[in-house]
Design a protein that fits this description.
102 residues; mainly alpha
Length: 102
Amino acid sequence: MNDAFGGFWYVWFFCLAVWIVWPDRPGRVCGGVFIGTAVVEFGQLWHPHWLHLLRQTLPGRLLLGTTFVWSDFLYYALGCLTAYWLLRRWGDQLIAPAHTPQ
């Protein structure tokens, strides 16, 4: 379980960040983040030299990861589902003040 739960927070953060731009579409936001994260995870199976060099940097490791692990998809799914549930439940309350006419 070494750093595995980090995937949960990784997708939760990106769901929230993208939702800020498109607050009326939490389902599409969370689904898109899950797909994007899956693409990044499968990209870890690709090892060209330039990508290897990029992954040796701290930002490269944090954003792209270094090793493919099937079990990470569980944490990505849990993070996206939790973010979706929270955004559906409290999302309107978070954006309501910005959309209130004066």
